[in-house]
């Protein structure tokens, strides 16, 4: 870790401060992809979410930083005051984080104007929020229209970027500058067909669920599939379950002999398992959150790029591939039947045509 100031000194690039409600991790969410790609042409300070508040935060004088590459540096937002103090704590926390970020990146970059790229709708929205000095982009990838500060952030943005066409109408009622940008894919990442022997042993012909294991996943349905199927089921992703009942459901799922949880993995490590599986699963629990039906299609695009059919219980927003590579079921019994006997077509030519459009 380093604590030096002016981390981007000596370069004339503009600086992007990208705020994210997802931490930097081995599982690359949309925010991480954007930060990495933007660092090819800009300095990027990735501001991840804070850790749990403790008394030591009151005496913190520096942002702890990690350099990912020459133009991408990672920090975490600090909650100096606990959030139970309400909006006052947000204002104070934003002000102090802005001061620390200014020290970190240097006066020259701040005075020349920053590009604030805001994915995080929980905090940081008053940092560098003067539109006459700093460009303001609000980027929406999940259904957050009912969240407390959604309208405030949308109205103050110079541009609102949304990932789904279903979000456009809401944000156009708040801001005339709305751009819908679908999720993309790096096809070069999936071109290597080399499979590691361990991946073949564990994941060959498996049903694979890739992504964060959270309260939103339907573990009961996954257990029904694994119990009725002869195929192995492989889960790759960090365990972020906070609900006790969901945690017990997850443990019950893992008790089955044909279920293998491999933990979190960086892309180069999970790719062999992805390439070896029979099909990708997208399996959300609609009973805990109705907005789960509006999830980003990024995961589906990754499965398609690996040449894998998808069994899903959410609309992946790729209607031209439904029944050709994407098998979408609202009905649990139909989903279960398809997952138990995944004899699925994969229309390679149609899939490649779609991927070329989004790559």
How would you portray this structure in words?
- The chain has helices spanning 30-38, 87-105, 107-111, 150-156, 168-172, 197-203, 219-228, 244-254, 267-276, 298-305, 332-340, 348-358; strands at 15-19, 43-48, 66-69, 72-76, 115-118, 135-140, 159-162, 178-180, 207-210, 233-236, 259-261, 279-282, 310-312, 326-328.
- With 359 residues, the chain is of the alpha/beta class.
- The strands form two sheets. It has an eight-stranded mixed sheet with strand order 3-4-2-1-5-6-7-8, sandwiched between helices. Strands 11-10-9-12-13-14 form a six-stranded parallel sheet, with helices on both faces.
- It starts with 14 loop residues before the first strand and ends with a helix.
Descriptors:
eight-stranded mixed sheet; 12 helices; 14 strands; 31% helix
Give the biggest sheet: 8 strands, mixed
The helix count comes to 12
Distance between the termini: 34 Å
List low-confidence stretches: none
Strand order of the largest sheet: 3-4-2-1-5-6-7-8
Percentage of residues in strands: 15-25%
Structural class: alpha/beta
Radius of gyration: 22 Å
What is the number of beta strands? 14
The percent of residues in helical segments reads 25-40%
